[in-house]
Design a protein that fits this description.
Layout: H1 7-28, H2 34-38, H3 47-58, H4 66-95, H5 103-127
Helix pairs in contact: 1-4, 1-5, 3-4, 4-5
Length: about 130
């Protein structure tokens, strides 16, 4: 058994992945009540442009309601945050020829997710 496959490293990687998921959900802010968004309480700065881009595709579908627009946009923003923040970690793993995720690559993923979520955090801070 390799030292990087030890159970404590697996647990650390899972905790870091949970942090990335939390930040992605926070950036999509679908933890918040959708009425807060319509009242302009707070949202990620990327929320409105993404809502504008998704609206033509959602009209005429079951998701073409007001709630559907907000939840679909929030989930899409969360998924985009999750995927885009994983790209630098994947490049790191490729650059250093790693076959599995290491703690360092997970930290890169978490740091990138934090950078992408920072504008939403600032908007949340200003709202409350």
């Amino acid at each position: 058994m390799h030292t990087h496959d030890a159970p404590q490293f697996t647990f650390v990687r899972l905790v870091l992945l949970a942090g990335v998921i939390f930040l992605a959900i926070f950036n999509g802010n679908w933890l918040a009540n959708w009425q807060w968004l319509s009242e302009g309480r707070w949202s990620s700065p990327a929320f409105d442009p993404l809502l504008f881009l998704l609206t033509p595709f959602l009209r005429g579908t079951p998701l073409g309601t007001q709630m559907g627009f907000y939840y679909t946009t929030g989930v899409s923003l969360s998924l985009l945050t999750f995927i885009l923040s994983g790209l630098p970690a994947a490049l790191y793993e490729r650059l250093f020829r790693r076959n599995t995720s290491t703690v360092v690559s997970m930290l890169v993923w978490l740091a990138t997710a934090a950078l992408l979520t920072y504008p939403a955090y600032k908007a949340w801070q200003e709202a409350f």
